[in-house]
Input
Amino acid sequence: MINNYPPKPIDKIVQPVQRFIQQEKSGGLLLGISVIIALILANTTLSHTYHQVLEQSFGFRWNDKTYFDYSIHHWINDGLMSIFFFVVGLELKREIIGGELSNPKKALLPIIAAIGGMVVPALIYLLFNPAGEPHKGWGIPMATDIAFALGVLYLLGDKIPLALKVFLTALAIVDDLGAVLVIAFFYTSEINFLFLIIGLAILIFMYMGNKLGVRSIIFYAILGICGVWTTFLVSGVHATIAAVLAAFTIPADVKIKENIFISKINAYLERFKNIDPTENTPTLTNEQLHVLEMMNEATLAATPPLQRLEHSMHPAVSFLIIPIFAIANAGVSLNVDIDQLFENNIAVGTALGLLVGKVLGVVGFSILFIKLKIAQIPDGMNFRNLLGLGFLASIGFTMSLFITSLAFSHEEYQTQAKIGIFAASLIGGVIGYLILNKNSKHKNK
Output
């Protein structure tokens, strides 16, 4: 019999961290802290060092030539953010295959809301910026930050019906897909078709591996990173698109069904129980180790590689990659000349696109299609909490900042767009929280 050992001292440190990571709102909280850190770095005596570090470049040397020589800022936006987009791709595929987007009847309303929440903000932005370089930012207010929006929603806890959380999650996932398509078609530089064709050929090879039953994560990692990501980066198509496409080639099926898995595990447990243990030692016998290995193999065979990857990568994305991205991109100097800020309509178009456009698009499109009896309102949802969700959808942070970096090379334009994003996200988040919190109080009376 194996003894249950008392907790180790390190557990007092590790367990609280694990509990924090497992909470849904933790990602949004850490993202908010990262934004504050970036603003402090950009508005204190550390500002020069902060920008200098981000502009440091490094690459790979071979025969006195340097390849992939990019700044740290560029590596974060094209490298680390590719991992973020890879996880987005995994989530999209999972939702389409077996999640909220797999049922057309349930998925219709959040899809409609997401489309409205992308189209109307873009139109409002273009209304203020119809021509010139500023008009390139029309994609900035289209995005919803799922981490921040869900973080605010989860602050309300059990006072919010599950239907609202599901609706906002599905809306944000469709919104992410829309943002990916916008980046692919409208924010891509000149294309080198040779490298693009090579990248697509590798994608096809990965897809064939999926269909042939290859389930090795290493196989997809090597081809995805060394093949697809590299060739797309060189081709001019944004590397994050490669990450999403690569995610769609990851197998989402299982090798053994649940009933077979259960019978195998029960048999292994019975076998493990009947093995004579090593007396008075914390180690296992070779036979016990062999049974545990077979249990692990059965567990892997019963788990889709797609979900295994998503589950293992999500903490790294939420608690490392997104905070690093925020620190690198949210550092805006608040010492801005008001006249300079409003010398064009980038800040106004971005702020109103998010704050007004998102609400009009999400709520307006939803009500229209419900009235036309094309879509059905989920149980537990009413106009007030739909309005609250509309304001939460105006929190366009991570993806909006990312599109800002693609839309504008001019630092002044980037600053104006970022201030518009910050203002709209803050106001939208507070209003959305107040509406939903008030609605829950009415329900509890």
Remarks:
- The two ends are 54 Å apart (CA to CA).
- The mean pLDDT is 84.
- The CA atoms of residues 36 and 128 lie 29 Å apart.
